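Sanity check

After download, print the first record. It should look like this:
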Amino acid sequence: MASKDYYGILGISRGASDKDIKDAFRKLARKYHPDVNPGNKTAEDKFKEINQAYEVLSDSQKRKKYDQFGEHWEHADQFKQSGRDGASGANFDFSQFNFSGGQGSSQFTNAAGMDNLFENLFGGMHNRRAQPRRGQDIEHQVEITLEEALSGASRLLNLQTEDPCNTCNGTGRVQKNTCTVCRGSGVIPRVRQLEVKIPAGVRVGSRIRIAGQGAPGQGGSAGNLYLLINIRTHAGFERHDDDLLTDVPLPLTVAVLGGKIEVPTLNGKLELKIPPETQNGRIFRLSGQGMPHLGKESRGDLLAKMTVVLPLNLNSEEKELFSRLRKLRDEQR
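Expected C-alpha cells:
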C-alpha cells in the first residue's frame, strides 16, 4: 500500500497557505460528508481520508513533521526521544517492523499497530489539549424592498455552517485516538435555519450584526453573523439618505390657478395644497414622510417634485380659451 499523500488528498500543492488548506477541506468535506451521501461507503471512506489529511496539514507543527517524515510523522518524537534516553535509533533494530505497509514479517502494518508498538516502547502518546478557538464571523446578503426598509422586516435564512462534533466535543480526539465521526477536524458541516430581524431605517450597504450566530467555536465562543443589506430599486421613489424624492404630476389648471392634489407616500396618499402659478419642477417638502432614522423614532422628509402635465385632445371650446389667453398675454407685452 503506497504511503498517503495528504496534499494530494486535499488537491493542493505543498506550498499551500493555511487558508488554501482550510478552503480545500471545507469544499471536499461538504461534498463527501456522510449526511450528504447516506449509505455511500466510497464517500464515507473519502470523508475520513479528507479529515485525516486536514488534521495534519492544518497544524503547523504536525505539518512540519509530516513534510519531514511522511505519514508516520506522529512517531518522530518517539524516535528522537529514544536516542536521548540511551536507546539510540541507530542502535535499535527496527528491521522487524514493516513501516512502509508493504510485504514483510511485521504485524504492525497499519496505524493501530503502530500506535500499539510505540505505546509499549515509550508509554503511550501524549495527547495535547487543543487551544480554544473562537468561531469565524459569517456574512450573508439580504435583499429587501423599500417598504420593508421603512417598517422593518424579518427573514428565514438557511446558513451553511459547521457545528462542534458531539462525539469529541470539538477537540478532534476521543481518549487517545482521532475521532472517527469528524476525523479530527472537530466540526460537522450542517445547514441550519435562523430567523433574523431587520430594523427599520436600514440603507443599502448597512451591516447588521447578530451576535453569536456565526460559526461555532472549537472550545471557544461562536462568531457573529453580519447581514449585508441591499434594497431593491423602487419605481416611485428615490432615496437620498433618509429623505425620499417622488415626481408628482400636476395638472396645468392647478398649476396656474392653484388647488389641491394627492401626493403618494409609502404609507398611502396625502393631500397637498398647491398655490397659484406653481412652476414646473418646484419641490414641496412634506416633513416626516421619509424614511426612519436608524435606531430613532424620527423620520426624514418626502420631497414632492411637481411635473406640470399639459392637457391633450382639446375640444374646440378649450382651444378657443387658450387662443384668447394667448391673445391677452400678447397684448400685455
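If your output differs, re-run the checksum step. Summary of this record's structure: Residues 83 and 90 are 8 Å apart (CA to CA).
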